[in-house]
Write a structure and sequence with these properties.
Mean pLDDT of chain B: 72
Number of helices of chain B: 5
Number of helices of chain A: 8
Distance between the termini of chain A: 72 Å
Order of helices and strands of chain A: HHHHHHHH
Structural class of chain B: mainly alpha
Radius of gyration of chain B: 45 Å
Low-confidence stretches of chain A: 1-16, 115-119
Radius of gyration of chain A: 22 Å
Largest sheet of chain B: none
Distance between the termini of chain B: 116 Å
Helix content of chain B: over 70%
Low-confidence stretches of chain B: none
Oligomer: heterodimer
Shape of chain A: globular
Strand content of chain B: under 5%
Strand content of chain A: under 5%
Number of strands of chain A: 0
């Protein structure tokens, strides 16, 4: 038995593993496209709830898609979901951090006391949609607005735990992987989030 | 998935919030859906392009490595592929052959053909040869 037989095949090429056959690459791209199409709207809504701004949410979702495709596209498809949401949550956190820094910086500038986030918001966004809709639909919209407002009031980690577990259907282990923390932390964050939401929404719902 | 050992109120909150969230996802407007689709295609395209660029970037490394290997193999084959003991002869023989070729190929108009010149001086060469062999004895 030649000694070289024990060497990894990647040893034979310089700079990384050999490219997958074209058919396999196409199949993988198709699978990735399907996966992203399946989760993109939920991911967008989750980012929008956290960031309040649809354009920022779209940027974060696109960035997460790109990073997943570029860095983890070759991984087994079963790993994509927790990875994607981890990238997404990191993107949301980064953007919120940048906003906080920007807000602090703006308060130091003379004549710039206003919150830049509020400046970006169009007042018409808060006006109720006047298009005719069924009363049930209207009630649902109002209930969702209250839920969103309550979710925004939650600390970021509690909100992440609640959305991943409840909206995305992750179990504790998957949520822990997506949030990059221990399962115990997930349970604590989730329990606190549910408790707070129940207090805030219990009377209304 | 979500455990079913929860209080009824908590479960109700979870189910309602989940249904509302899903409703808001389904109710996304066409403009946002279209933007998301474009973002997905852009991400897949960019990821594919970066993968191709990564492989293109590796090509110079492969070509240079392949060139060095080919040169080494060729040198090895030329050195060890010739019969033993002929390496020194080869250069001497090839030098003589080149001189012969020069003589044969030379076409000096003034001195005539090189072979004719050799023919004319054959007596001189014969004498020179004899003189060289007899000289040490003398």
């Amino acid at each position: 038995m030649p000694r070289f037989a024990t060497l990894n095949a990647t040893w034979m090429v310089w700079g990384g593993p050999a490219p997958a056959p074209e058919g396999a690459v196409l199949e993988q791209t198709r699978e990735l496209d399907k996966f992203l199409a399946e989760i993109e709207r939920r991911a967008f809504r989750m980012a929008q709830i956290a960031l309040r701004d649809p354009d920022d949410a779209l940027d974060v979702v696109q960035d997460a898609m790109l990073k997943l495709a570029r860095n983890y596209g070759a991984r087994p498809s079963a790993e994509w979901r927790p990875l994607f949401f981890r990238i997404l949550q990191n993107g949301v956190r980064d953007l919120q951090r940048r906003r906080t820094v920007r807000k602090r910086f703006m308060t130091w500038l003379p004549g710039a006391k206003e919150d830049p986030d509020n400046e970006a918001q169009d007042p018409l966004d808060n006006v109720a949609d006047m298009a005719p809709s069924a009363p049930e639909r209207l009630m649902q919209d109002q209930a969702m607005q209250k839920l969103e407002a309550s979710l925004r009031e939650l600390p970021a980690r509690q909100r992440e735990a609640f959305m991943l577990r409840n909206f995305e259907g992750f179990d504790v282990a998957e949520t822990a992987r997506a949030m990059g923390c221990s399962e115990g932390s997930v349970k604590t964050h989730y329990s606190r989030a549910v408790h707070t939401l129940r207090e805030q929404l219990g009377e209304v719902w | 998935m979500i455990e079913h050992t929860l209080e009824p109120r908590q479960r109700e909150l979870e189910e309602r919030s989940r249904a509302l969230f899903q409703g808001s996802v389904d109710g996304l407007d066409m403009a946002t859906r279209s933007k998301l689709t474009r973002a997905r295609y852009a991400a897949l395209e960019a990821a594919g392009a970066s993968g191709r660029r990564a492989w293109l970037a590796r090509i110079p490394i492969w070509t240079s490595a392949a060139g060095v290997t080919a040169a080494a193999v060729l040198g090895f084959a030329l050195w060890f592929g010739t019969p033993a003991g002929h390496h020194g002869m080869m250069s001497a023989d090839s030098q003589m052959n080149l001189e012969d070729l020069d003589i044969v190929a030379s076409s000096d108009e003034n001195s005539g053909d090189a072979m004719e010149m050799l023919q004319d001086d054959i007596e001189f060469y014969d004498w020179a040869d004899k003189a060289a062999t007899t000289e040490p004895a003398a």
